[in-house]
Here is the input.
Amino acid sequence: MNVKSYDYFSTKKEYLNFLKKQEKVGKPIIDKIGKLNKFYLPLSEWIYSIYKKDNKVQVIGLSGGQGAGKSTITKILKFILKKNYGIDLCVFSIDDFYKTKSERIKMSKKIHPLFFTRGVPGTHDINLINRTIKNLRKKRNFKPVLIPQFDKSIDDRLKKYKWIKIKKPPSIIIFEGWCVGARNQKNSELKKPLNLIESKYDINLEWRKKINNQLKNNYKRLFNKIDKLVYLKAPSFKHIFHWRLLQEQKLKLTSKSKKTMSKSKIKEFIMFYERITRHMMRDFSQISDLTIFLDKNHRSKKMKFY
Here is the structure.
């Protein structure tokens, strides 16, 4: 560990305080100090070392299935890198760049009805993501950058006055999302339906082919902007369903009157994500620079570099 001991204890205190707040709206977090020492601190040090190589703005991709803990991880990394290394981070999720509800309604009428449901490639505003990354990477003549915000409880993008304003240039950009870094499949792999959504509502493969084509072209160009990709590998797809369920329960506690999904609705919802999620779980060594293997309790079992 390169950080001084007093930095470590100060970081540990802030880390535990953060987790305490998280536990108020969720289940108790297991092995807190173990996660700090074996996961967060080594990961922070690795990210810092990437930045120090050339002192240029770095885009770090963070990918993993739904409920894998990407949002929590980025929040913790943000204060550790600032506290221990004086590094300013800008963190945003691909989820915040979902197309508006009205845009997806148009897609569902023009291309395929399944495109009304947010999530899959094709339902994000790729041009807006590209512009955002370009503007964040400007060191000279930097102007404040607005990061959109998407409210999942109303299934729509928030008004611009509620977007997050980045006032100074970041040293590191963390771009997180469930499909960040995903590659397209061979057309032959699309033929066999994986679930009820595909077999019942995408009989002619139009939806699957359109998504795959998006990954092959627009999303590939976007993901090529990523300097290093970290992938969080779940033990299995059934764990992703369980974690997504826990995520919704947490949302229900924090959103109060806002609309949340039932267990059966979540089961149906993740069918939209299943194909790409399973593909990434097989393809992780080809797409990532670092894969973190998680156990059922979100603990890091091992970290492997590629």
User: Anything to note?
Assistant: Residues 5-95+173-296 form one domain. The chain has one domain: 5-95+173-296. Confidence is low (pLDDT under 50) at residues 1-6. The longest strand covers residues 58-64.
